Amino acid sequence: RDIWYLMFENAAHDSIGGCNSDTTNQDVFFRYKQAKEIAENLVDLHMRLIAIRLQTEQDITLTLFNTLPSKRSEVIEVETFITERPFTLKDAHGRTLQYTVKNKTDVTDYVLAQQISLNPSKDVYMPKQVWKAVLLIEATSLPSVGYTQVSMVFDESSESAWEQTEGRAIENTYYRIAANDNGSLEITDKQTGRTFSEQMIFEDNGDDGDSYNYSPPREDLYVSSKAISSADITVSKSGLQEELTVQLTLTIPYDLEERSQQSVTTSLPITAKVALNKDEPVIRFHVDVDNHALDHRLRVLFDTGIASKVSLSDQQFGTIERPTELTQELEWWSNEHWEEKPITIEPMQSFTALRDEAYGVALLTDCVREYQITGEGYTTIAYTLFRCFGKMGKENLLYRPGRASGEKIVETPDAQLQGALSFSFGMHYSKDAVSEGHLAQLAKRYTTPVQCYERADFLNGRLIFSFRDEKEDLQSTYSLLDIETDGAILSALKKEEHGTGIVIRLFNPYLARQTAASINSSSLQHGETANLGETPEGHILKAQHGSLHIEPLTPCQVQTYIVKKK
């Protein structure tokens, strides 16, 4: 409830859009910071309340939580603590899981000096050395809406070592990616043999806009990573992931005055990590930028080769097609003297895509949510990493002539985003005409990582507050329910606000076809439809053989169900 109150305080019109003074934005940021920290601690607490009750004979266990309504098997990345002893990871069925220690930091003194035991008679395993580590784990058959316990078995090893290798190419089942001299990528779809050239082009240009609108300078200068003669390229690999690191520097104008003079004096260092997980059809990108220039925009470009009149992206409870070119609207703007120029810079929730009858390319994100389709023939997805500006409102913009939308006297130095910035997103190249349902499912998995809780008595202390020992009365694996669907997407799964039922909200992401679904659990009793406020609508769903079959959802329809268990 406290989290929702903080979120609602940030839902005022300009607050939620960031169109504020720096002081107001600092208040908005602090409320989001509080909401995020409370949420993370609630998740951590309840994962612990489950994990410490699981039956085990091991000193260290990892409990993996899958909040999606279907089983999943994939390489996951978790932050955890490991000791000096070699170990093998085994799942709840005794199967060995391959893992990779991607990096680690020695925290021995800090961790072991903080240990607290509330049960002095208990024999607690105390290691000689402790590292804080990032692990890649090949997780298999994680239960839907459930958890499973993974044990560290000491003195044997299932580690796949992380090693730097020669060359400048990586690959998995789906892709082969090679870096060019300038840091751009040649991405080959191994399912079709099709190669996409000069992918991941970084493009910088001026931003003469304000907190409300992007607007280009009247005298602009575009700087592209295509023009770079050489980038630093390294490759690291294990049996679970291959990663390509590209380091390059754009030299750009410091401000709009320099840009109008076509002068470049400021370095913009960029580090891009491109990762391929084992058997995953998504290419994972993480980009770090050190920004010390003013009034500019940085985008990353992917030329799909697909000339399309519309782009596809998700919105709340559905998908939308938008034109890639606004020919008629631009004529009206010019002839009828509209106050703002129509532009195709668009928002998305978690994906955008271009497709034709035979192929599709999509960008997935849980980060910045702005894109534009550009390039000759409108084949390029231009993904905004950041834009920075110095005024809350400005007048006489190129894209918005006349008055300022906001206060033109309010300076916003914070909005210049000086310093280190980080971004993450994914790319998916489809071997056929990609569907809205497939993209929505893929994006949902990408934005919903598996959660992990490590149970180890020696960690009790400053790192986590101490608990008394709990009775170990829970089985090592559990699934609440699963949802079978031909495309419907889970939007929410929660406890009923004023009752004992489980609230499940589904929506149909398709533009022109219905989707069906069934909710499955051996303990289902019945269900009923409800509105968004969880008020029953009177349509009762009876369970048959542990399944609730729901009526097909029409395109972009959202429906809430309240499910009762025995």
Structure commentary:
This protein is mainly β and 566 residues long. The chain has 4 domains: 2-51; 60-161 and 450-478, Immunoglobulin-like, CATH 2.60.40; 164-446, Beta-galactosidase, Chain A, domain 5, CATH 2.70.98.30; 483-565, Immunoglobulin-like (Sandwich). It has 7 helices and 37 strands. Strands 8-15-16-17-18-27-24-23-20-21 form a 10-stranded antiparallel β-sheet, with helices on one face. Strands 1, 3, 4, 7, 28 and 29 form a 6-stranded antiparallel β-sheet that branches. Strand 15 (232-237) and strand 16 form a beta hairpin. The longest helix is centred in the N-terminal third of the chain and has 30 residues, at 22-51. The relative contact order is 0.14.
